[in-house]
Specification:
By secondary structure, this protein is of the alpha+beta class. The protein has one domain. It contains ten helices and ten strands. The strands form three sheets. It has a four-stranded antiparallel beta sheet with strand order 3-2-10-6, covered by helices on one side. A four-stranded antiparallel beta sheet has the order 5-9-8-7, covered by helices on one side. It has a two-stranded antiparallel ribbon with strand order 1-4. α2 crosses α3, α2 runs parallel beside α6 and α3 crosses α6. The mean pLDDT is about 90.
Length: about 290
Amino acid sequence: MPVNEPRKHHYIPQFYLRNWADSDGRVICYKRVPTGRLVHDQVAPKSTGYEEDLYTLDHLPAGIRQAIETYVTADVDDRAAKSLQEMVKTKGVRTLTSEQRMSWSQFIVSLPIRNPEAVADIKETATKSGMEKACEEAKRKFPEWAQEDDFGTEFEEIVNEDPQTRFLSDNYGLFVITALMRNQQFHKPLLSMKWWVIDFSRSGLSLIVGDRPYVNFRPISHPRTLIYLPISPSLGFFASPEPEKERRLRSQDARFVAREMNRRQAAFAARYIYSADLQHKRLVEKHLRET
């Protein structure tokens, strides 16, 4: 196996988590140990928020089986990093170019579908759905030999025995994820929304980030939805199709909004919560689920 084969696939990208890092390049990471006790440690972004071989393509040799991590997610993250840098530097979104807006939208769209649970679910669902559709199509086109009760089982066995169809079947879910991340059609709802950044540095609360950082209040298609993503310990990114949403949010007490956003991050987290300081232990203790 090549030494440089990228097997650590970060669903919480390093460039994103670095904004919570201290001068030593480490972030505070809260998690629960097997006994259920909450602990925290200082970790480097490269050492957390990943799963080995998460996007690895099956039935391919080393060198090309990591194509999704090498050429898709890495590209999404590299371009999004520039958008993030611009928003943090200006504390806003007005200077983002159209290309940077597209890159940031693509990154946000990727977050809910690139974590381990989502990848496993999409792979299983896509493979099962594809198999069932192919089987039904075979029954429709070739009724004279595809109507036996055990045809479905035989069909699946045939697929698994053939190298080409097995490759397509086992990797179909990853192809779906790739399409969702790269197809601009899926980014249009977010691109059409109003974007803004709120500076919470005077609220007295720092912002935390969970390992499921994308938070949406109502479905994305809802006319009053609100999308939130912390982008640093003091800055939060928001998007909504509702014109008055930004004004109403800014008019509220900043500490109240920061506290609510942190609560959502903690409640959505699966295993890890990250912060730049230790003021959130009580919140994390209350909301971080036990594994």
